[in-house]
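Quarterly update from the structural biology core.
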Amino acid sequence: MKKMTGIVRKQKIEYAYVEDSEADLTNK
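Predicted structure, tokenized:
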């Protein structure tokens, strides 16, 4: 969550990418 916030701050577009990555991690 803290990483997501930092990325969102940098670029909102990255937010979607991070969200996907987090979902993959949860599935794994």
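The chain has two helices and no strands.
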